[in-house]
Structures are given as C-alpha cells and as structure tokens.
Amino acid sequence: MISTWIKTTLILWLFLPGIVFAATDIPVLDAASFADEVILFNEGSPAAINKVNNSPALALGPPSRKQPSLTLGCGGILIVRFVDNALIDVPGPDLYIFEVGPHVEATKVDISTDASHWLHIGQVAGATASLDIHAYVEPDQSFSFVRLTDLKQSCNSTTPGADISAIGAIGSIARYQFPGDLLFDFDKADLKPEAKHVLLEWLNGFDGKTGRLQINGHTDQMGSVAYNVTLSRQRAQAVAALLQDKVGQKITIETFGLGESQPLVLSTTGEGMAKNRRVEIIYFPQ
Question: Which range marks the domain in which residue 89 is found?
C-alpha cells in the first residue's frame, strides 16, 4: 500500500549518530501498511542489556525516531500479525524490515496465512532490507503473519541480535473484519436485519471502484472440522449474496469457508471464541 507517509522523518533519522538503516532505498508507506499485533516473542540469549529494548510492541506500527527499537536477542524470534491489511505479491519488493542500530544483523524471514504453516522467503542483512515474495506464493495469495528469527551473527554487543523498528508490507491490500456475532445468530448462516444495514453502509465506500472482493468465513473450534467449514462457507456466501446485488458487475466476489483453521486468538474462553467467529473481506483493487 504505497502512499504518502512522511518520508522526511526517515531521511532525518538516517543521520542520527549510531543509527543506520539496513538499506538506502526506504519505501514510503502509510500507517495501515505496518504490522499491528505481536503474536509471539521469544527473547534470545543473551538479551539486550537495556530492558527498554525488550518490549515487542516496539516493532509495531510505523518506525519512529522518538522510541527505541526492539532487540531480538541472540537467536530471538518475533511473530507479528497484519490486522487491517494483508501482505500480497506486487511488482518488485513486497515486505520491508526496518532494522536499525549500530550493527545490521542477519535475520531469517518467514510468512504465513495461519501462523502454523510457514514459507521461508529469505533473510535481511547488510544492504538487504526488502524482500520479494513472488517466487514463493500463488497468485492473489495473501498473508497475515511474519516471523523474524535472529541468525546469531552478532551476539556480543549491548543489543545482541537484530534491532527491529517496524515491519511494513510494501505490497498490501485492505482487509475488513466483521464479528460473526454481529452478522449472525449463533450457529446460523442467515444475516441478521441489522447486519445487512452494517454491510451496506460499509459498501458505500466502494462507490465507483472496481476490482474483486474475497470474502472469508471463519468459525470457532466448536463442532467438527467439516461442519465448521460448511458453516463458514455458508456465512461467506450470505454476505456475498447481499453485496453482489448492490455492486453488480463492477466488482467480482469470491467466497471461502475457512472454518476454524485461521483463528485470531488461541483461546477456549467465550470471549476468545467469539473473536474467531468472523467474516473477513479483502479488497483487491483493479
């Protein structure tokens, strides 16, 4: 999602003493293009001496010279999620790792749709901070998760391991999440009357646009895998039927029932399972 994020901030940051970026070709990204949520942080050993550098939240959102970066520690692992956007393949680089500090350490990079099955797409180090996922993915495949693993090449400094300031999706698309309990009664696939109003109001933002909507239905882990796939597909189809009637031929719509395979949270509580019951809509502009 290339747009008009303030490039001047990055240019100024390059000249701060003791701070370097891993490359000179820094992309211009808006705030929605950056990782939103930490899924896992296994701090490496040795870890940063200064504990101000060991909060994984420092790697979320746009990079800022007003806050420190996250130090992974020697062999440390960080997994983050894109919530309001998704990583896709576009011409040229697709993912940019903002790695800062007096040393630029090698970091292994993997991506995933579900945080369980991972694709290794290379590593960042030295002058390489951007990665092109084209050779590893299917057309129109989208990814929510990025995993960074420090490769233990610089473990003797006060900030051992990679120093991560931000993770940006150069190739990204907008993703919208609708809670299942807002749209449907429990265990049902018929849209609630108020849900139709919510969805049609949201659709107003697409006036004049063309492209494709991918609608993914998700359930919690209650019930069998087969049942949940069927229910999630029926829910996605119900949303698609409502929207297609309004957009006509300008926007094509495809549906997928993903069942319980891509939970937002790993939880057996009522609140956690409610978060996993959802409909996700991804917009691919034309």
Answer: 7-170
